[in-house]
Amino acid sequence: MTARTSHRRSSGAIRRLPSGRWQARYTGPDGAMRTIGTFAAKAEADQALAHEVSTMARGGWRDPRLGEQPLGEWFRGWIATRTDIAESTHALYEQVLATWIDAPIPVATTSGRPRAIHLGIRTLASLTPAVVREWNHAVTTESTRRVTERWERSSKHDTRVNAAIRAWAAASGAPLAPTGRIPGWARDGWAAATDASVPERPMRRNAGQTAATQAYRLLHAGMAQAVADELIATNPCAIKGAGQRDAHDRADRRTVSLEEMWALADGMPERYRASVILAVCSGLRAGELFALQRKHLDLAGGVVRVEQSLARSRQGQSWFSAPKTRAGKRAVVLPKIAVAVLREHMTEFTPPGRDSLVFGTQNGTPLASGSRSTMFAKARSAIGRDDLTWHDQRHSALTLVASTGATLPELMERAGHASPRAALHYQHAVDDSQRRIAAQLDEVLIERPRTA
């Protein structure tokens, strides 16, 4: 049996183990003795110990036990203790965590063998830029696959088929009722004339990008907090542009013309017709608009006060939550046409009482987002704008406000933006400075004669 050989230093010790390998240990700043590891040669152990001593001398030493907590467990605790975000954001973060971070995500391999990457079971300290890149690619691929599958299923849904039959019947001179059962003659006639094919609708260019971007942003923010908490040394999320992948699609949002606004409103159920007009005239977010109560409206002054938003449905919780930021609480002055439409709507559909919802259901409860989406989908299909989303109305409203010459602070106040970054986009959308510069250049170039 080989005798143990020990070489003590003031900062640690190196000893030879019975196996013949060399073990290096050191005393940390907290006074505790820690093992660096074992090495084949004494010189390697010496080098490792010298590195630790040098790191401590520079003040860069970190307790290696930090960051050993599983990532999924740490993220759940971090989200639960966030007091600076709204309830809806809490719910969104929990959903993103459960779907993309603390869940196995399939990874494409050249060998064809199924493999998955699960960040949640890894420790904080074990996350490297290479692991994050692999995970990010897997999330983007899987998210796109899921969105594509949903899109393909929706194209075969009864709602799409019935809409196609009604469009065919109207074109054939025998229009059907907008709701109710499709007659057998219409279904058979449509199938014979079109081979039962539903008109294709283009899939969004950014299919899957939104979910992937949300997942990366959450991971980046959480790991940045872990750095601030000194659990890890650096943030492993270093993929350039990954947090802004959907920025180009946001910049190219669709707009709604005033004629389309009225057509969309007419395509909605009568109870919610005014919601489209108010959305385009006010720029309120959907959650803000459908959380409005009588007490928030001053029709005499033409003012809407935004004080709350619809919360994500959770058992035992209130229907409402506070706006995400302080800037979200604001007063919006409406144009006269919107006031007139609102007054007519509230007379017919809004029950008396300060707390009555302006755009509630017949039972007085908030309209579910799924129901709103279904109604809006029918309205946009009726005017041939399947590309529109409800949020495009807010974009249209703020672009219209920017076209009036509103300043950046005025845009921010009306939109409820906490930072100028988002509001700047609406100014850029109507900024004609480049055309003005080009026109001035033309004048200069025309004045100067061409030389040979």
UniProtKB/TrEMBL annotation:
It comes from the Bacteria. Keywords: DNA recombination, DNA-binding. GO terms for biological process: DNA integration; DNA recombination. The keyword DNA-binding applies. GO terms for molecular function: DNA binding. Gene3D superfamilies: 1.10.150.130, Intergrase catalytic core (1.10.443.10). SUPFAM superfamilies: DNA breaking-rejoining enzymes. Residues 251-439 form the Tyr recombinase domain. It holds the Pfam family Integrase_N_phage. PROSITE patterns: TYR_RECOMBINASE. The keyword Chloroplast does not apply. InterPro entries: DNA_brk_join_enz (IPR011010), Integrase-like_cat_sf (IPR013762), Integrase_catalytic (IPR002104), Integrase_recombinase_N (IPR010998), Phage_L5_Integrase_N (IPR058717), Tyrosine_recombinase_XerCD (IPR050090). PANTHER family: PHAGE INTEGRASE-RELATED, PROPHAGE INTEGRASE INTD-RELATED. Belongs to the 'phage' integrase family. This is Site-specific integrase. It comes from Pengzhenrongella frigida.
